[in-house]
Amino acid sequence: MSLRSWKPTMVAQGVLWVLFGLLLRPEPGTATLPLLMDSVIQALAELEQKVPATKARHTASAWLLLAQESGPRDLVHHFLLEGRSLKATRLDPHQLSPELRGLTKDVVQHGVQAGQEYGVVLAPDGSTVAVEPLLAGLEAGLQGYRVVNLPLDSTASPLDAGATFADTEATVPDVRATSPGFRDALPDVISADVGAMYSNVRAADLDVKPTSPGVRPGSPDVPVTSPDVQAPSPGTEVKSPTTVDSLLVVTLARDLGLAFLQGPQTWSHSGLGTDGCWDQLSAPRTFTLLDSKASPVTMAFLNGALDGALLGDYLSRTPEPRLPLSHLLSQYYGAGVAGNPGLCSNLRRQNGAALTSAPTLTQQVWGALILLQKLEPKHPQLQGMSQEQLAQVATNATKEFTEAFLGCPAIHPRCRWGAAPYRGLPTPLQLPLGFLYVHHTYVPAPPCTDFAHCAADMRSMQRFHQDTRGWDDIGYSFVVGSDGYVYEGRGWHWVGAHTRGHNSRGFGVAFVGNYTAELPAKAALHIVQDVLPGCAVRAGLLRPDYQMLGHRQLVRTDCPGDALFDLLRTWPRFAANVKPRTARRASRRSGRKPPAMILPASDLQ
Hints:
By secondary structure, this protein is of the alpha/beta class. Helices cover 37% and strands 9% of the residues. The chain has helices at 8-21, 37-50, 53-56, 60-67, 72-81, 98-107, 131-143, 193-198, 203-206, 246-259, 299-317, 325-332, 348-355, 358-375, 387-406, 414-417, 451-468, 522-538, 562-568, 582-590, and strands at 111-113, 116-118, 120-122, 128-130, 147-149, 243-245, 276-278, 287-289, 411-412, 433-440, 478-480, 486-488, 506-511, 542-550. A hairpin with a 5-residue loop joins strand 11 (478-480) and strand 12 (486-488). Helix 1 (8-21) crosses helix 2.
């Protein structure tokens, strides 16, 4: 083949698999770059300069198989992404910097061990991202958005490194959901659509029989059946998937399904998977999970999987010549790809909800488990599982992911914004609560639009509340920035210091900024009006009949600002029967003091 036939896609694919392949020859003691997404982007840029097009074409199959540990992951990647038997072209690792070789060793494989998570990096938006599913999504996107036939022959044998599969080149109609693809998704797509999206999951979508007694739900909070996921009547024939979407399987569906084969999980109420804390934010090296018994499907893994799926979908829809991968990632983890602020990491959950529907994801998880079962008949988690059981696992996994991850806001934990320790002993809340109190911070007055400024504002407010006000901690339960994120204050479980006399009865949620004359960002408003309380109700933290009040309705203050309060009064959950400062005015008119109230000590702040 002549050099004229080499395409930029081949170069990009080669760069990815060379990055995987560098894991083969790690050097002990090699100096490494900090575990930042910027370091990964720097590594890709260096590879793009070092790898000539004539070498990049033949690296995809061999580098991945050699770089990853043996197991079902190898077989799935081989079947879906490496259908042709390709010769490997080796790259001399010494052509690359020691920092790049060390970084590759640190990030190319994702794993959880002894309470620490490996293969993750800190992104500029403050989120932690697993690199492995991100790179897998990029590779799948570069190869094209392929719908691949499953090997339905029950005698199909496990794959070997030299096998080829004609099915991987089959042309099959796109089986994705009727919801818009990412290219058509608007920046203002919001995760409230998730609830409506999931309501479409019915037995007819799955043709699933009632679950046999041996099937275990994926989470204690997720029932085997629910009003939204109904098992059909006995005797209904199971119709298993015959195709899978290679992009969704290699990024998300396979690992999501495997996680729900392990029985009840240890996931938190704030989202699917466990988050964690970096040893430092400027030059992070170690990421420790908040739950030492976390499933491998952590928050960082889900972030990387969604980013890989979204960027892979974008690549599959973008004609040649495409952006170099280093440029693509730099834009995605920055202001937005190709000048589109809606295509950025801050909005991954909203965009993920637009990428695929719950019925389609259920089929993809089910299909991924079928594929694993075919490729590795002795897989310890899949051996002996019936189609009915696999279908139920897929249903549970999709429901949990849709409701607890896509349907909840992204919340940065306290360690992410650099919180100082709590002073004293916190008082636990008696959950669920019945109120959500809306505030604005007033100072800082300007809205924060990126992680660095929002985190700095959080530290500033905490210092003021602790050092000037004499409180134990930052007063608010949660703070909402204009960057698409929620910042944990005292959180779901501890009494705050936000609404004097009512701290133990409701959560205090503040918008960063002064909203006397203007309104917060649309995305921030949607988080407070719908997403955050909806997530809390599903998790049992907020009562289903909860009400929203402005700070001024309970305390003599102008908070949350005239413009924001006027909008709050139009929200369905607004407690219109509570008038601002009514009790105080009535007391003045009568000339009598209001009756004394016995308040918990925590409510006096």
